[in-house]
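Side project, low priority. Logging it here so it doesn't get lost.
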Amino acid sequence: MESLAQTSSGVVGDNRTVQLDGARVVELRQQLALSREQLAQATIGAHGLSEATIKRAEQGARVYFETARRLAGMFGVQVESLLQRSDSEEQGLKVGKSTRARTDDEAAEAAIAVVPFRPLGQDPDTQTLAEGLAEDMTTRLGDWWFPVICRGSTSQYRSLDPGEGIADELRVGYLVGGSVQRRGDAVRVQARLLGAPGGAQLWASEYNRPFSKLFQLQDELAASIVGEVNHKLLALTNRELSRRDPADMFAWQLAARGCYLFHRGTREANRSAQELLKSAVKRDRDCCWAFYVLAMSYQRELINQWSPDLARSVHQLAEISSAFERHHPTDARAHVVAAYVQVYLGERERAADRLRQAIADAPNVNTAYSLLGQTMAMDHDPDAALEQFEIASRLSPRDRDRWSIHTGTALTYFVAEDYAKAMRWAESAARLRPEMAFPLAALASSSALAGDSDSALNAVQRMREQHGGWSQDGLKAILGSTSPDIAQRFLAGLRLAGLPA
């Protein structure tokens, strides 16, 4: 997997590194009243920057051109204004004005600004929630694909009115904002996504919740809004990217396209996603979210038995995990990926330790809670497991991948031999993502052991129609971390349901 460590060299075209005006970078950061650490925190995500990278930029060291673009987006300036004069001129000679302009336009099209939510009324708690939502959403959106303008640059704006020229001033393609209103014990949050420069409304939603446990409410609302905004942005971005030659895409575009295909959830789309994501991490090893989704594409290949050689899929997952952690040792998702590897190798305790570390580093990474719940269930601790799934559900109540949380909950009830609840949760997971095989397997085994042979047979028929190559032998390869008695009981249920060996 050494190729994952390789990156193209050079400015755009032949040489993709540029020398920055360090004093200018320091000046712009100080204008935002941010330390290096605070700036790094504000840019967390696939387009984030480490403190070490920011320090090198401020010292005038050569950095990747896309790093310069990300800094320019955060500071709200033209990328050329950060370059040393010689490099700025070299960009013009090597790239040409038309290509350079397209680069700047694409950087602006990708960027997002979260405008402070407007509190309706004078209630202090409403104002606290409004401020907290914007802060939380800025951080959470930074965990996805798109560059996010830091709060130091957006806090001065107090409405989402596109007529104020916010998008032009911040050089962004999208604005997110809305309002918060409290009436007694109820809260109503209205959120909108606008496209720049015209301010067309691309998405809007209303959330009504009971007002209790303010910070828990803020977590739930921020997670819900960010999940929906992210999927909408991916869909909008991919309308154009689907017509583009991958050779003409930047790393973040390759990653965004790969993520979109990964979420399609089919064998063919997953394979295409892997190729795009491999190209993304080769071109830009700073693209940490691409490492994560690339790893998850192999996890999905395993769980759906999409490969004729599942041992090779585990090996590839392990190599990606190693590369991810080598380049992003402080990213909590690297711990999650490493935990998946250890799960498949049967190292359940080490996997649990990794997941606890991921949660300690980043309490909002819902996949860590979900996988920790699975490891606890497979170790005969269903009560503790259910608590982890409840947290994961609260953090991603509308996420497209909540089917995996429902599947894990079904397996937890299976461990507890509460087959009726296991069936309900497995059926729920299968409704959410009918193209996934494992929920149907859980449904088939639980139904058979509950004595509901009709439901068991129906689940197996659905599995064989949608996943013809799925078998008990293939399942054994992905049950390495499960206690032997649980695995044997699960396989016995599948035999009763009629799944071939």
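Brief comment: DSSP finds 24 helices and seven strands in the chain.
Revisit when time allows.
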